[in-house]
Amino acid sequence: MQLERTLWHPVALSHVVGSQPRAATLLGEELVLWRDGEGRARAWDDQCPHRGARLSLGRVQQGQLECAYHGWRFEGSGQCTHVPAVPDFEPGPRHCARTFAAQEAYGMVWVRLDEPEGDPLPIHELPLFPAEAEPRLRKTTSGPYFVQASAPRIIENFLDMAHFGYVHEGWLGSRDHTAIPPYEVTRTERGVLATGCLAWQPRSSIHAESGAQVEYTYEVTAPYMAVLTKVPEAGTTAIDGMREAIAMFVCPVTEETSVAWTRMAMTDFESPDARLIDFQDTIFGQDRPILESQRPKRLPLTPNAELPTVADRMSSAYRRYLKDSGITFGVIL
Ligand code: FES
Ligand code: CO
């Protein structure tokens, strides 16, 4: 069984999954997302078991999903409850949509396509984002960003500081400060952690009025997810010892296309959502042409692939982690 299929992946913002079914793609699998009568988010194969029509063309009626073609109705468990052409017929267990496990966390719907076999590993649990539970941080999500790039290329870019002075010049970096001081990389139970990452930034947030040396940590918390933390800028609501966190959530759509979101947990309670989102949109918009230009599109995990330097220590550790974990989707082995 493919490892990726047994992991939880983000597929949509929670608030967009509502009374209208919608289509999404995860690991090449076409899904319909909808919300049942109890308000639970559901993720099924986007194919009606009757004659194969897309269930995402249907509608939600009284908490059940109704197929657009012949009006078969399905309850949240996937069981068909009604076949309008044969009103007296009682559908049995075979008359069931193909369902996947779904849950909601961090403002998103997460889906797992297959149950892990044997004892689940830490990697099989929902990826951690501890900042979410901190009430003194304000949470906002930006995205979706539909990107013509593999999920691991997007995560590797998120972990990369050496591009700040070029891709984000005047924002996250400057051509006058391009050297990356040494930082520490350690393996964790579920991923990789980089600490003591220093970057000189002209404008690292919407409040920054002058350049500053910013210290980051970067943590890969799942194969297609990473979190950065930093001490808040002067000028924002300063809270002792509090670190802001930004998570990069990536849905691997196909091997070479992805959808990404950023989940922000910030000390800034004043700025409207639109301003925080606008900042992330700008930064991601700067990364996008680079990401979509990278060849090969799948991240090479082969020995001696591409040319890492010591500044790329974290990205090298990320590649080794993907390889050791047994990831095959979006990579070249
Ligand atoms: Fe869905 Fe016939 S194909 S009801
Ligand atoms: Co960037």
How many helices does DSSP assign? 4
Mean pLDDT, as a whole number?
A: 94
Bound molecules: FE2/S2 (inorganic) cluster, cobalt (II) ion
**Main beta sheet: strand number and arrangement?**
7 strands, antiparallel
Percent in helix = 10-25%
SSE map:
Layout: E1 9-13, E2 22-26, E3 29-35, E4 41-45, E5 59-61, E6 64-66, E7 73-74, E8 80-82, E9 99-105, E10 108-112, E11 138-147, H1 151-158, H2 164-167, E12 184-187, E13 192-201, E14 212-222, E15 225-230, E16 244-254, E17 257-266, H3 273-293, E18 299-300, H4 313-325, E19 331-332
Parallel strand pairs: 18-19
Antiparallel strand pairs: 1-10, 2-3, 3-4, 4-9, 5-6, 6-7, 7-8, 9-10, 11-17, 12-13, 13-14, 14-15, 15-16, 16-17
Bound molecules: FE2/S2 (inorganic) cluster (FES) and cobalt (II) ion (CO).
Task: Describe, in short, the structure shown.
The protein is 14% helix and 33% strand. It has helices spanning 151-158, 164-167, 273-293, 313-325, and strands spanning 9-13, 22-26, 29-35, 41-45, 59-61, 64-66, 73-74, 80-82, 99-105, 108-112, 138-147, 184-187, 192-201, 212-222, 225-230, 244-254, 257-266, 299-300, 331-332. The protein is globular and about 75 Å long.
